[in-house]
Design brief:
It contains eleven helices and 14 strands. The chain is an alpha/beta fold and 327 residues long. The protein has two domains: 2-183, Rossmann fold (3-Layer(aba) Sandwich), CATH 3.40.50.970; 197-325, Rossmann fold, CATH 3.40.50.
C-alpha cells in the first residue's frame, strides 16, 4: 500500500487506463499544459501527446458534444468540466444526447463517456463556483452518478467509470484534492458502482452521507461517541445506482436516520433518499428522518457567511440529537 492524495489518485487512474486502452482520451479546457484548474492532469499530455489529451476552447457545449460523438464512434473519452457549475452550459449534450443515445438506438450504440465535474463549496470561490448539482443528474435515466471522496475510492471508481459503456457523471469535491489515504501499489483494481461503504459501525443512529459530508459525518460520529451516542456512518460513494440494501439494513438495526448533503437542502438528494427509505421501511423508523444540507441561498464569497451556509459537523450532531429526542 502507498499513501497518495486524491489529486494523484485521479491522475494515476487516468494514466493507467490510457496506458491499458488506446481508445481512452481526455479533453477539456486547460487540461493539457496547465493540467486543469486543480492540476489533476499535469504531465498526462507529455506522456500521451496532443492527439489523446485535447486542450479545448472555453466552450462546454462544444467539447462535451465532441465527447458524446467520440464515445458513440468507438472512443472512451473523459471530459473535464472546469467547475461543475458549468454543467448548466452542457446540459443539452448530457441530458438529451449522452443519457438517451444508447436507449434510443436499442443498444447498438455504446456511450462510454465520463464527465468529471469538480463540485462543492468552500475556499471563498463564490456563488458561480460553489454549487452541487448531483441531484439534477440523479433525476436523469440513462446516467450513472458517482461521488467518491477517499483516494482509494476515487481511483477505483474512476477506473470503473472509464471502462463502463454508459455515461458516468463523476463528481469530485473541489476541496478534496489534498486528502490522503492508502491505495494498493501496483494493483489494477476497480470499485463497483452501487456499493456503499460503512465507515463506522454503530447501533443508535444511521447517518447516510456522501462526498465531503461522509468525512464530516465520521468526525461528528466520533464526537457523539464521547456522549455515549453510537452512530453508524454510511458513505454512499455512488448515488445512481444507490445501495439501498446497505441503507435499509443499517436502519433495521438503528431505527433512526439522518441523511446529509452539502448541496442546498431544497430539492436535494437527501429528500429523495428519505422518500425511498419511507417507501421501503416506514415501520422500521422510531422517529422521523432528519435531513442536513446547505442553506437555500446562493453561496456567499465572504468567508464568515460561507461557513454559515455550508453544513458541518455541528449541524450533523444537532440532527442526531433531534432524531434521538423524537421518541
Amino acid at each position: 500500500m502507498s499513501e497518495i492524495n486524491v489529486r494523484q489518485a485521479l491522475n494515476d487512474a487516468i494514466r493507467e487506463e490510457m496506458e491499458k486502452d488506446p481508445t481512452v482520451i481526455i479533453m477539456g479546457c486547460d487540461i493539457g499544459v496547465r493540467g486543469g484548474p486543480f492540476g489533476v492532469t499535469l504531465g498526462i499530455m507529455d506522456q500521451f501527446g496532443k492527439q489523446r489529451v485535447i486542450d479545448t476552447p472555453i466552450s462546454e457545449p462544444g467539447f462535451t458534444g465532441m465527447g458524446v460523438g467520440a464515445a458513440a464512434t468507438g472512443l472512451r473519452p473523459i471530459v473535464e468540466i472546469l467547475y461543475s457549475d458549468w454543467l448548466t452550459l452542457a446540459s443539452d449534450q448530457i441530458v438529451n444526447m449522452a443519457a438517451k443515445m444508447r436507449y434510443m438506438f436499442g443498444g447498438k450504440v455504446n456511450m462510454p463517456l465520463v464527465i468529471r465535474a469538480p463540485f462543492g463549496a468552500g475556499g471563498g470561490i463564490a456563488a458561480q463556483h460553489s454549487q452541487s448539482f448531483e441531484a439534477w443528474f440523479n433525476h436523469i435515466p440513462g446516467l450513472k452518478v458517482v461521488t467518491p471522496i477517499t483516494p482509494y475510492d476515487v481511483k477505483g471508481i474512476l477506473k470503473a467509470a472509464i471502462r463502463d459503456n454508459n455515461p458516468v457523471m463523476f463528481f469530485e469535491h473541489k476541496r478534496s484534492y489534498q486528502i490522503k489515504g492508502e491505495v494498493p501499489e501496483g494493483e489494477d483494481y476497480t470499485v463497483p458502482f452501487g456499493k456503499a461503504a460503512i465507515r463506522r459501525k454503530g447501533k443508535d443512529v444511521t447517518i447516510v452521507s456522501y462526498s465531503m459530508m461522509a468525512l464530516k459525518a465520521q468526525k461528528a460520529a466520533e464526537d457523539l461517541a464521547k456522549e455515549g451516542i453510537d452512530c453508524e456512518v454510511i458513505d454512499l460513494r455512488s448515488i445512481l445506482p444507490l445501495d439501498y440494501e446497505c441503507v435499509m439494513t443499517s436502519i433495521a438495526k438503528t431505527n433512526r436516520v439522518v441523511v446529509t448533503q452539502e448541496a442546498n437542502l431544497r430539492g436535494g438528494l437527501a429528500g429523495d433518499i428519505v422518500a425511498e427509505i419511507i417507501d421501503r421501511g416506514f415501520d422500521l423508523l422510531d422517529a422521523p428522518p432528519v435531513r442536513v444540507g446547505a442553506l437555500n441561498v446562493p453561496m456567499p464569497y465572504n468567508a464568515g457567511l460561507e461557513s454559515i451556509c455550508i453544513p458541518d459537523e455541528g449541524n450533523i450532531k444537532e440532527a442526531v440529537h433531534k432524531v434521538l429526542s423524537d421518541e
